[in-house]
Amino acid sequence: MKVEEYSKRQQQVMQWKVNIVSYRLGDQYYCTVDNVEPGATLARAQGLTRDEAEKKALEKAEGMLAKTLVMALVSRRQTKGTANR
């Protein structure tokens, strides 16, 4: 099998830039989403169409990034609370 319809683009998801790579291999489309800095893979998905694969992968990535945002806010709140003592 040969990779076809390869596509790579950047998109903003919440406050992070992510790379979205998708391609077709046989009858399936595959998608990988990674954060631009440092380039760690956030999510992978597959589907019968490019849209389906990208939607699934982006939903997974958004869930992970949302948790990261929550942890960053908790950390800031804890730091502020400690500084006021």
Structure description:
The protein is of the alpha+beta class. It has one domain (3-83). It contains 1 helix and 4 strands, in the order ββββα. A 4-stranded antiparallel β-sheet has the order 1-2-3-4. The longest helix has 34 residues, at 50-83. It is elongated.
How is the topology of this model organized?
Blueprint lengths: L2 E11 L2 E10 L2 E8 L5 E7 L2 H34 L2
Antiparallel strand pairs: 1-2, 2-3, 3-4
Helix content: 40-55%
* Tally of separate helices: 1
From N to C, what is the helix and strand string? EEEEH
Strand element count: 4
Kindly estimate the percentage of residues that lie in beta strands according to DSSP.
35-45%
Mean pLDDT: 87
In short:
The chain is of the alpha+beta class and 85 residues long.
